[in-house]
Amino acid sequence: MVNSSLPPPSLLLVLLFIFFSNALNLPSAAMDCHSSDRAALLKIKGQLGNPPELSSWMPATNCCAWDAAAAAAAVICSPDTGRVYLVALFQLHVDVAAPIPPAYGELPMLQTIQLDTLPGLYGHIPASFAKLAHLEQLDISGTQVSGPVPGFLTKTNLSALTITNSKLTGPIPGSLSRLSSLRYLDLSGNMLSGSIPPGLLHGSSRFLILSSNRLTGEVPAGYADGDMDTLDLSHNQLAGDPSFLFGATKPFRKIDLSWNRLAFDMTGVRFPYHLNYLDLSHNRIRGRVSKSLKDVNVLHLDVSYNQLCGEIPAGRYMAYHQADSYANNKCLCGTPLPPCKKPRYARL
């Protein structure tokens, strides 16, 4: 099995943009920032307790040119207007213990907020975020942020919403489906409960990552349709038959349904040709290992801890999977497991 997990595309885009902005010395730093944006950023600094990494954030200076110690923060402005449209904070001083600053809501042209690996950040997502009509990417990871996923986020223009490894509780609001540009949703590593609302994603190349929560019910049928790239619902309490997700022509590249209570017969299932990550382990899947997997170049395959039986199909891409991909099933046999026992009559 190969681990193909990557940082979310929203995070990668932010990091790449910051890198190339610094490397090429883009002109956004040359224009003085808008005075109200500078005032809002100074409020954010104060509401975080004035961490030392933000020592360059000073009054009467150009906030578009602010640098941060140890690359702990980034502020990017429009080269045409001087308005701040990206604020990213990474791994601030361990002593930072504060709620998410409400002053973010005073940056009206803000498109991206990133708060990454800030274990002292706590409390609910501020209601002031509802004023950020241009907000496209919200990334909050590795914090103590708690409370519900706020419905007022529908007043933004989010295309990517990531709130991971935090302490969110309650249901996922179905109103998020009104975010017509939302195509990337990652709420993994929280304590969310209830069922998965239908229709949360729109557009092309969709990612739905809700792993490591307390979600129940069945997978909504609509997630089998559209341009779905990734579906990760692992480590929940989901039940039912999700086999409608599969099909040779489905665009999925990653499906992880492991550690649930899902049940279906795999024998006749045809898996997507483009799939490169499939984890169905720790469920209640029965039947035989599907022969269609011979024709799918799955880099990570795990169907262990199920109720599968019979001889594992051989040939083509099946040769790349090791024994741990099939461990702890009912009665699987054949390469890479021990050979199948021949019926007694065949030995006569």
UniProtKB/TrEMBL annotation:
Range of residues in the leader sequence: 1-23
Entries under Gene3D superfamilies matching the protein: Ribonuclease Inhibitor
Domain of life: Eukaryota
Entries under SUPFAM superfamilies matching the protein: L domain-like
Pfam families tied to this protein: LRR_1 (PF00560), LRR_8 (PF13855), LRRNT_2 (PF08263)
Residues covered by the Leucine-rich repeat-containing N-terminal plant-type domain: 34-67
Family to which the UniProt record says this protein belongs: Belongs to the polygalacturonase-inhibiting protein family.
Record-given protein name: Polygalacturonase inhibitor 1
